[in-house]
Amino acid sequence: MSEKIYEYKDDQDWYITNWSETESFSNFSQVSAEAGKILEDLQVALNKDGRTFPIEVAILRYHSAYRLLVFLVNLINEEAKRKLELIQRQGALLVVESGQLLYVYIPQGGVSLTDFLGAKEVKDTLLIATRNEGKTKEFRKLFGKLGYKVENLNDYPDLPEVAETGMTFEENARLKAETISQLTGKMVLADDSGLQVDILGGLPGVWSARFAGVGATDAENNIKLLHELAMVFELKDRAAHFHTTLVVASPEKESLVVEADWPGYINFEPKGENGFGYDPLFLVGETGKTSAELTVEEKNEQSHRAQAVKKLMEVFPAWQSKQSL
């Protein structure tokens, strides 16, 4: 069994390594916890195909993380035929190979994030395809926890309006999300929502906002809906549900789609002062209350949009971590 001994020694640092054919990476350090942590983390970061480096490291003196990493990178490049590079950046040390960042050493006390990244804004941006500040506020609260800066279309006044020409909620949400994503190069979240009444074959559906005509008010749409149901006298026959489809799009990536429904019935007259759209007519499940009679907190706990957002937050991290197409 062939073995090679490597040594580095100066007034402050002294390392001895044994490179053999056995698969081990041990005897990290009895001198410095930091040095031992560097060795452990580097082994994990550089692991290829489940194989460990056949190396034993004895650290007799330790002072410089930079010196230790230079020693290890050169050794591994020579013996394992790797092409590792060590880069210094604002006090941090980066191990890179073929353009891929594999390992980062951060000194005690940290480094300036702005200096390290070379930009004032360090968070990724999620653009909400809406000009509604209330809706944006809701998404900002959710995605802020995941480390995102949330913007909306008011931040991009020169963007064109995207015509909602789709025949389904998903088609319209995709149109908005994917079109704006391609125009801006950003990750974009769009939604399309509406009311679907069973006895009306799913109407008003994607035409919910313009059921009584283009530019119709909420009151006009409600009057139109009551007119369409004027001859439906049994509440059980007035079953309906609110629907939401959310689409997240990013350039060169398959879009993420989630959907949710909120079942109920259409009341015979409007009730309640809260909410908007068809809320005064929509009886929530079997509660006997319309959506407009719920508090904002009650609605946000159970609505179609609340359910869709909950689903989105469950699958978004895994989707976001996937590689581009």
List how many beta strands DSSP finds: 13
Give the CATH level 1 class of the largest domain. Answer: Alpha Beta
Number of domains: 2
Please mark out the parts with pLDDT under 50 across 5 or more consecutive residues, or reply none.
none
Give the structural class. Answer: alpha+beta
Number of helices: 8
Strand order of the largest sheet: 9-8-10-11-12-13
- Main sheet? 6 strands, mixed
The rounded distance between the terminal residues' Cα atoms is 46 Å
CATH architecture descriptor text of the largest domain? Alpha-Beta Complex
- Give the DSSP E fraction (strand runs of 2 or more residues): 25-35%
User: What is the ordering of alpha helices and beta strands?
Assistant: EEEHEHEEEHEHEHEHEEEHH
Shape: elongated
Q: In percent, how helical is the residue content? A: 25-40%
User: Under CATH, the topology of the largest domain is which?
Assistant: Maf protein
Provide mean pLDDT, rounded: 87
Whole-angstrom Rg: 30 Å
Active site: 192 (proton acceptor)
Family: Belongs to the HAM1 NTPase family.
GO biological process, one term: nucleotide metabolic process
Subunit structure: Homodimer.
